[in-house]
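Q: Could you fold this chain for me?
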Amino acid sequence: MAISSLDLSPPAALRVHVAHTPAGQPPAAPRLPLAFEPFLFLTPAHQALQQHNCPTLAFFLEDEQAQRTVAQFYVVLDFEGLGLACSPGQASFGGVQLAPDLPASTLHTLLDAAEVALGQHHQTRLEIRSYASCYDSAGAATLAVALGERGYQVVLSEENYHLDLARDYSTQLDPAERRYLRKGKQAGFVVEQEPPYLLPAAYEFIAKCRHERGYKLSLSLERVQALFKAFPRQHLLLSVREPTGDWAAVLIAIRASSQVFYSFYLASPLRLNKLSPAVMLLGGLHAFAKANEAALVDMGTSTLPDGRPNQPLLDFKRYLGGIASPRLTWQKSL
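A: Sure. Below is the predicted structure, expressed as structure tokens.
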């Protein structure tokens, strides 16, 4: 999320620093301080935990006069086959993050350098899965303009839904979802913040619930544990418990930035469909994120493995008062 305006130096003061990292080594960090708050997924520390075993190229647009890095871009080489470079490697999104007010014309300087370097590393295509526009609407728009001018094509357009924390949660619910919230309270359900040592049990619960619905988890327990260990303040375990103490729903959330909490894994068993405890649980995340001075809760996209939208899940997010914003995946032959 943009945190300040940018006083950009003349073009002559801008340069691109390119850093190549072999497979198995942590990617490079920017040499100059960033002129923006980086999203968690686009930090070197998170990049280092993305288990793809491929080389990485990092691109940093530096303003020498201001001594700031005004844009950054991480790309994984040969990620989805020989010659296909991708951003991200193993994360919810990648793409170019840029400082506020950076013009598209200046962004071309970074993209020029990226395409040349990728060609030198025998990459024939580049795929960029960018962040949803709710994270930084101006930045997403600038990137879209620059990529469009360079001949990139949108190969996947997903609807991403988020909750605006300036709006009251319960009053934004569809009447049916409001009834679920009331039924959950009447049944004695309560929202709990769970300690991290319960993560293995929570992961097993989520995996079992997903299996009931025909879905799999994208990350292993070991990978999720590594993320909790590396970023303890950015990872949160919430639940809804029944009066018996059993879990009715479990949620793993990620603080993707100071302004955004991301609902990463959320699950409840089929036996509780008539009470839909997920409604109460997302209300708990809404309250927690608001208390921690965030601006929105990202509920993510709902896309099936074949690329089609999961319409029932999209409808559910909309019934919760979710606001749609696009998340685009771009591709170009180099």
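A (continued): The chain has two domains: 11-151, 162-327.
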